[in-house]
Write a structure and sequence with these properties.
The protein is mainly α. The chain contains 1 helix and no strands. It has one helix at about 5-65. It is rod-shaped and about 100 Å long. The termini are far apart.
């Protein structure tokens, strides 16, 4: 093997390793984004449920006061 062939192999190996690293980082980023989106949706549902409970409590208290 000549020095030229070895350098080509080393460069090709570096490119392949870089692409694999980039792919892994993209997958991790996507998983993190999906997890964050799930947390956001869950938070919105919890807030809406709390608002519904408060509205129901005031409506119930108003109904009981009128009797």
């Amino acid at each position: 093997m000549t020095t030229k062939q070895i350098s080509r192999i080393v460069i090709l190996l570096a490119v392949v390793i870089s692409l694999v690293t980039l792919l892994v980082k993209l997958i991790q980023g996507t998983a993190g984004l999906v997890g964050s989106l799930f947390n956001l949706i869950l938070g919105i549902v919890v807030v809406l449920a709390l608002v519904a409970i408060v509205i129901w409590m005031f409506a119930y208290a108003n109904k009981m006061r009128k009797k």
